[in-house]
Amino acid sequence: MHGRTADPVPRQPAAHGGVSDRRPWTILALVCVAQFMVILDVTVVNVALPSIGDQLGFAAADLQWVVTAYVLFTGGLLLLGGRMADLLGRRRVFLAGLIVFTGASLASGLATTPEWLIASRAAQGVGAAMLSPAALSIITTTYHGAQRTVALGVWGAIGAGGAAAGVLLGGILTSWLGWESVFFINVPIGLVTAALVLRFVPGAGVDSRSLRELDLPGALTVVTGLVLLVYAIEGATRYGWGSTRTLALLAVSGALLATFAAIERRARHPLVPPATWRVRSLVSSATVMAGATGILVGAFFLNSLYLQHALAASALETGLAFLPLVLVIGVAAHTGPRLLTRVGARTVVVGGLALIAAGDLLLAGAPGDAGYATDLLPGYLLLGFGVGLTFVAV
């Protein structure tokens, strides 16, 4: 981060009368709770999608926007959120993101139309994009040495833990309290966390440079371009790839993404410095990570609909069905580092992608009356283990 930093937490007296570098774990707990909500909202909603679609009258092709809007705005604005934390202060941006996320969660639970819910989910993504980088910055500037290692390990575990809790919690809440509860649960947690952050997380030094250093044009063009690109692809099955609508959307999307590239070349403080694209290892890793993440999110989306519509599973049964997939990601993430030291990153990535492909092929071949243990579970296990290995290797 670029801004001046104040010592986030006063140093504590050591037992021998000196000064200890140890920091209280309260700060880590608070930022991890907030990040847990961000991760949770990727998977918790998938289990509730069939209920959401039925009650709000979503067209089948539009239901994916409940997930896509959140993911696009979170990923598209993440770098901008990190830059805001530099210029405005970590705690301030963290709290702002948490408040936006919490308010958007309330709006999502109150939604009565598809458009309302999609807009609220996009707002949730904006809040998550502010919250996550600021939270990580708070951790790295608060803890040092062995404490930082532990803190970053806990932070990494939040990903697998949030995903696992999401599929299970989504099933429980949807079955017992209705789909609205998967959003409402964020509200009290967000409000309590915000109050405790004000109490326990000190403000840090704020960069005095101009806010004009924020690359707002770059952020706006890349997010809008990506949204239009997904919108064009989603509608192509309905209107055709050669239709005027599809071609026009693709053209506008391409123009916006080209404009983004031009802005980044000329901006004094670009979101993505042009030199980044010349680092082949970084570009290839980012591409593989994006592909694996997209496959995983798509698998949750499609299989949630398949389990509940084709196999008549309840929301709770769907959450339990996904649990082995999520747990095996954690197993692979634990095993992956050992494989990296033995066979190298490239071999692990290729192996992980091969397992993902095999798992997807098994799931694609599942019949309309599939049995869970024989037709679905093997595919889930292969997919999860492959994703876990790929995430570790890249």
Shape: globular
Number of domains: 3
The count of strands amounts to 2
What name is given to the CATH topology of the largest domain?
Growth Hormone, Chain: A
Coarse structural class: mainly alpha
Mean pLDDT: 86
Q: Any idea what the CATH superfamily of the largest domain is called? A: MFS general substrate transporter like domains
Approximately how much helix is present in the residues? over 70%
Distance between the termini: 23 Å
Question: Describe it for me?
Answer:
77% of the residues lie in helices and 1% in strands. The protein has helices spanning 26-56, 65-88, 90-109, 114-142, 145-177, 181-184, 186-200, 216-239, 244-266, 280-310, 315-343, 345-364, 372-393, and strands at 12-13, 19-20. Strands 1-2 form a two-stranded antiparallel sheet. A hairpin with a 5-residue loop joins strand 1 (12-13) and strand 2. Helix 3 (90-109) runs antiparallel to helix 7 (186-200). Residues 1-19 have low confidence and may be disordered.
Keywords:
single chain, 394 residues, mainly alpha, Growth Hormone, Chain: A, two-stranded antiparallel sheet, 13 helices, 2 strands, globular
How do you describe this structure in short?
The chain folds into 3 domains: 17-212, Growth Hormone, Chain: A; 216-266; 276-394, no CATH class.
Q: What order do the helices and strands come in, and which of them pair?
A:
Blueprint (H helix, E strand, L loop, with lengths): L11 E2 L5 E2 L5 H31 L8 H24 L1 H20 L4 H29 L2 H33 L3 H4 L1 H15 L15 H24 L4 H23 L13 H31 L4 H29 L1 H20 L7 H22 L1
